[in-house]
User: What shape does this take?
Amino acid sequence: MLSVRDLTVSLGPERAPVDIVAGVSFGLARGEILGLVGESGCGKSMTSLAVMGLLPQPGPRVRAGQVLLDGSDVTQLQPWQRVEAGHGRMAMIFQEPMTSLNPVRRIGDQITEAVQVHERLAGAAALARARELLELVRMPDPGMQLSAYPHQLSGGQRQRVMIAIALACRPQVLIADEPTTALDVTIQVQILGLLRELCNRLDMAILFITHDMGVIAQLADRVAVMYAGRIVETAPVGALFEAPRHPYTSGLMDCMPSRNSGARRLPTIAGQPPKPSRVAAGCVFAPRCASVREACRLATPPRAEVAQGHEVLCAFPLNGGGLP
Amino acid sequence: MSGDVILDIRDLKVSFTARRAGRKRRVQAVDGVSLSLAEGEVLGIVGESGCGKTTVGRSIVGLARPDSGSVAFRGAEMIGAARSSLREMRLNVRMVFQDPYASLNPRRTIGDAVAEAGDINGFFKSRAERSAAIAATLTAVGLDPSFAARFPYELSGGQRQRVGIARAILPTPSIVIADEPVSALDVSVQAQVLNLMMDLREELRLSMLFISHDLAVIGQISSRVAVMYMGRIMEQAPTRTILDHPLHPYTISLMAAVPKPDPSKRILGAIETGEPPSQFNRPAGCVFAPRCPLASNRCRGDVPELRPVGDGRVVACHNI
Assistant: This one.
């Protein structure tokens, strides 16, 4: 349904562009949750903003590639043009709901605003739809909350309001950029459960962006691991956690404390990610890779399919270990 | 681990005034917390935002003013002590903060930041001694001594947190209070900083109070854990005991909510476990009762006391 092909987002002058997202491709099917995981600065948020058409202006721009929603390319359209062209059925939620909500307007007004834009409803009908949306996101006491202001809600409730606003356009694709990172774990698990439920009930696709491998394991159907602007591994969630094939994915999993209970020292990944302006030739991960070979520093690694639906950007993928 | 008690906190209560709808209201951030830290031990405090874990840490170093209770360092009371006697205690009890971006002055060099506590207390006899101490401390936290001349903006998050740690160990203290020291860091950097803290603890024989919301991090570094919720300790026990077999209903729900990197434990649909009540409207009995699956009338009326239940564990729950 959503297909991203060779998406490249760049900064700087036309003559010497710096690619912060370099040739990212992935697809997203109806009713599926794709987890996009990576550390700060890997380009995961820039990818999502580019897909959504929300790159900050002036600033980074889509230099190459396509974002196909139901077959038509939306990269060159502004968000309002997308709504007019009927390609508006994509919505996004962010990490901190308080910065996305207007602090001096009631929750009900903010949801009905979205309802009016997308469904051309007004007055009581719009308000009824707003209440329905709040029920859909399992907001406790939805009738009362319509007249509340954002500061009167908890962090988890605000995120539910954001999801309700996002659902106002009846999206086919929901992009969720670290939506639970600012929440406590006992609240986070409820929001994750809600997203899974909505995905099933509304047959909606979710692109879920996070830095947390734990969240990925529990929520995503498929995973794309991003490093230095590139997707280095894509796999079904089970296969990825059972046997990561890219050395970066493997290193990332090894340094999680929860996978090392009792170990005296945690394994680490040496060094730091490269600056986008100083990406060396060859594999982007080569300077930090534990199993680097000479060839890795010379040529860009191929994208290899190591199993059905399991792709790795590595010339020498790790052994899957045991089972084929 | 069974060394002498180096820091003893008794019945600590801290409250703040907050203005709500034009009226002043008291918020009880810490409501009767008692903890003791043994020489050479790492005690973890785990809890969610607003549970009072940070306020406990800040009260110990004098950044928050308790209403009542006692904080004793090697038997000497710190709350209300004279400034002159506090000076030595403060050099011995130091803090590492969460946000390495906010806790460094952007206009001072790394070297000056690291030497600050020493400078204030006249610790260095000469300039040469001062620079040598800065260089040695930077090396100890895994940074090149040349970092002394740099400014915070030149450093990555992980490097800044190493500087944050360096500031807390020059001159070498007895106790380090680490308040979410790795929460702002990426997981690969987090592992590096945790390893560093474990090494320093051993080399410098530090005792440590490690405050975090992350059970996995706490499990990695601490030997004992106290679980806090709404200003009170719910359960306290050796780390392995709690992680393998949590008893308090809050500890159980907290552990169940932590996302595990294991796709066989997937979230399949909606989960409704409620939210903590408002700080302005604390429950009369057990603070966890409104969300607790085991809550009875007694829980809603009487505050449960912490009591020992064997294997070095204390629990505040009527149902155990």
